[in-house]
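User: Sequence recovery, please. Input:
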């Protein structure tokens, strides 16, 4: 069977994304044929396109999508034709496609109360928010946390969820419009950061009576890391989980002693979704948060899948808020 999909042969700009007709084989043992109905856009898709996150080439693109099972391989009993499922990795990169072969072991059944577009907008970003808030640092009622890129895909879910847990949420954003959006979605104190000069540490100290926050969640990296360290309270936690402005600099560990001995980690989704059981448990927690209304999934941009290059340019240029889905 033939389908259409993006292929990339060389790292670089969005001009390297090639929309092609490709062959899809029949599903093998432990596999299904999926027809995608909605694909999630993630900033990390752009890191892989540019080579910031290296991957073998040539390759497909994207690692988050939702779809319908169209055929099952030999021995597959866990799923049947017509089932709605999604994934957040565990597969070759090929989410930017109309159809694909997928490993049953990595598929997440989508509950009836969540439609496909919402699921594609929520799965990867929501499970990331889940492990960051529940595990990497366990946010408790009464905590104060700092979330960078608070109006973004992961950020807006974190603000809502942390707020529902009972934490005070401080967030950084680049525009007043994003500040309003973050505020409407659980961020108590959005800070609009300027491109030049000190950005947010002084304000965070003011907002916390000089103490600093229990946890900093930094997905911006290079431009924010040093100030992020300065925002943690005594024995607080500083987590980097992204490189929107480039990778964070090397840490001078000895220098962090006088800063209150913060716990420092670089967190990656793959290390918190190590088995299907773990992934499904995190997905269930996310689905419960959505059902209870603690997390409202904000699908703010939709593009045709074949316009994914435009979507990538928009997320790179900080023109998006909330989640973005690509429709095959
Ligand atoms: N480690 C993990 O497990 C994991 C999993 C998923 C996502 N992530 C990371 O989480 C972050 C958010 O992902 P997302 O897909 O939801 O993206 P997003 O937050 O919707 O978009 C990125 C945002 O980063 C901010 N930003 C700050 N400096 C930037 C710069 N120099 N260039 C571009 N953007 C900049 C922008 O918000 P402002 O304009 O408001 O500053 C922008 O909107 C990314 O860094 C991603 O890599 C990590």
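Assistant: Recovered sequence (328 residues):
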């Amino acid at each position: 069977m033939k389908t259409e999909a993006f292929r990339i042969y060389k790292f670089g700009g969005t001009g390297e994304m090639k929309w092609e007709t490709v062959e899809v084989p029949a599903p093998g043992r432990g596999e299904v044929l999926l027809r995608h109905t909605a694909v999630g856009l993630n900033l990390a898709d752009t890191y892989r396109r540019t080579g910031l996150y290296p991957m073998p080439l040539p390759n497909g693109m994207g690692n988050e999508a939702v779809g319908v099972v169209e055929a099952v391989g030999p021995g597959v009993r866990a799923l049947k034709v017509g089932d709605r499922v999604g994934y957040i990795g565990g597969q070759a990169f090929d989410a930017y496609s109309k159809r694909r072969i997928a490993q049953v072991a990595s598929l997440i059944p989508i509950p009836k109360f969540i439609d496909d577009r919402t699921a594609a907008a929520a799965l990867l970003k929501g499970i990331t928010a889940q492990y960051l808030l529940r595990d990497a640092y366990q946010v408790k009622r009464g905590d104060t946390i700092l979330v960078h890129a608070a109006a973004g895909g992961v950020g807006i879910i974190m603000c809502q969820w942390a707020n529902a847990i009972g934490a005070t949420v401080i967030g950084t954003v680049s525009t007043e419009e994003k500040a309003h959006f973050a505020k409407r979605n659980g961020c108590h104190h959005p800070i609009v950061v300027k491109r030049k000069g000190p950005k947010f540490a002084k304000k965070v100290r003011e907002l916390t009576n000089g103490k600093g926050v229990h946890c900093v969640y930094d997905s911006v990296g290079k431009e924010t890391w040093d100030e992020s360290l300065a925002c943690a309270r005594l024995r607080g936690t500083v987590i980097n989980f992204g490189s929107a402005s480039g990778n964070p600099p090397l840490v001078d560990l000895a220098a962090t002693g006088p800063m209150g001995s913060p716990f420092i980690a670089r967190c990656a989704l793959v290390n918190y979704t190590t088995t299907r059981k773990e992934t499904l448990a995190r997905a269930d927690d996310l689905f419960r948060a959505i059902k209870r209304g603690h997390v409202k999934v904000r699908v703010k941009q939709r593009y045709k899948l074949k316009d994914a290059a435009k979507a990538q340019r928009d997320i790179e240029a900080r023109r998006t808020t909330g989640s973005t889905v690509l429709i095959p």
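The CA atoms of residues 36 and 67 lie 4 Å apart.
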